[in-house]
Design a protein that fits this description.
It contains 4 helices and 7 strands, in the order ααββββααβββ. Helices cover 30% and strands 18% of the residues. The protein is α+β, with helices and mostly antiparallel strands and 185 residues long.
Length: 185
């Protein structure tokens, strides 16, 4: 009597779309977004990946802290979302682009206070600060400490408009939503 032997089984099924770990995700998107994604790639998943990489850059392309030039000799610091920064009541983060935020110190807060607070967050044992957030805090501290020691850092104000109470007329153009219930024009 002959017995059948099993061949080494292959994975079978569809070939992988991406050369990196991935998983299925279900989401509902507006029709206009689906149309725009189709302009990027006929395959929606590939279109989403290309759109995200175009906006945020490929993984590791931009560090957690960046510099946005505003003149030939000045730049603004930008950071990725970092929840420990939200614990500082005198600091606001203002989203200026997907994945990028400006730091805004409230009136009268010196840069040195931010430097000390960043060091305190880094020195806190555990405290629920992720490794990625620690990297962000450490990099931000480096971007502030050296220029401050060389007297090459200053705080500047940005204009932030609070939400209008209901019933008041709104401005002629819609405003871009920021974190903390504020708007940037």
């Amino acid at each position: 009597m002959r017995t059948k032997t099993k061949r080494a089984s292959s994975k079978g099924g569809r070939p992988a779309k991406f050369a990196e770990p991935s998983r299925p995700v279900t989401m509902t998107l507006p029709d206009r977004i689906l149309s725009r994604l189709a302009e990027i790639d006929g395959d929606r998943a590939k279109a989403v990946v290309r759109a995200v990489d175009a906006v945020l850059g490929p993984p590791g392309a931009a560090g957690p802290v960046g510099e946005l030039p505003v003149s030939p000799d000045e730049s603004l610091l930008t950071v990725v979302r970092c929840p420990p920064l939200d614990s500082l009541p005198w600091l606001s983060t203002v989203e200026i682009a997907p994945g990028r935020r400006l730091l805004s110190l409230h009136d009268g807060i010196p840069v040195e206070k931010l430097e000390v607070a960043l060091q305190d967050l880094l020195d806190s044992p555990g405290g629920g600060v992720s490794d990625a957030d620690r990297r962000t805090l450490r990099t931000l501290l480096e971007h502030i400490r050296t220029p401050r020691r060389n007297q090459a850092v200053r705080a500047a104000q940005i204009l932030v408009i609070q939400d209008r109470p209901r019933g008041l007329p709104s401005p002629r153009a819609p405003r871009k939503r920021l974190t903390g219930g504020s708007h940037l024009f």
